Amino acid sequence: MQQPKLLDKRTQKEVMYYLPDKEMSQKLANLFAVFADKTRLRLISALSISEMCVNDLACVLDMNQTTVSHQLQLLRNTGIVTFSRQGKTVFYRLATTKINQVMLSGVEYLGF
């Protein structure tokens, strides 16, 4: 059996340069963990279309308001959604269009 080819020094340096450090790897793991839950994916998808309040999200997604509120809190904690108040009503939106791009990349990868 042939020995695997070892990387040359230049390639090793390039890999080391672009390889995320441990802290960034943990942050990425935390970010992608958010996308590992179908409820949060549905919330993100809905918010990529329009900003909405908890009541609207619960209605559109046919979910319990408590569940929606809990998941939105997780999305807020990770910086994926932001909110604004209009009187007593809180409206949620995606913090950046890059979140929608991640979702679309996943859909493209799956071939839809």
What does this structure look like?
With 112 residues, the protein is an alpha+beta fold. Helix content is 62%, strand content 12%. It has 6 helices and 3 strands; from the N terminus they run αααβααββα. The protein has helices at 9-18, 22-34, 38-49, 54-61, 65-77, 97-110; strands spanning 52-53, 81-86, 89-94. The protein has a 3-stranded antiparallel beta sheet with strand order 1-3-2. Helix 4 (54-61) crosses helix 5. The radius of gyration is 19 Å and the shape is elongated. It starts with 8 loop residues before the first helix and ends with a helix.
Oligomer: single chain
Strand order of the largest sheet: 1-3-2
What string gives the helices and strands in order?
A: HHHEHHEEH
User: Count the strands?
Assistant: 3
Low-confidence stretches: none
Name the overall outline.
Answer: elongated
Query: What count of helical segments does DSSP give?
Result: 6
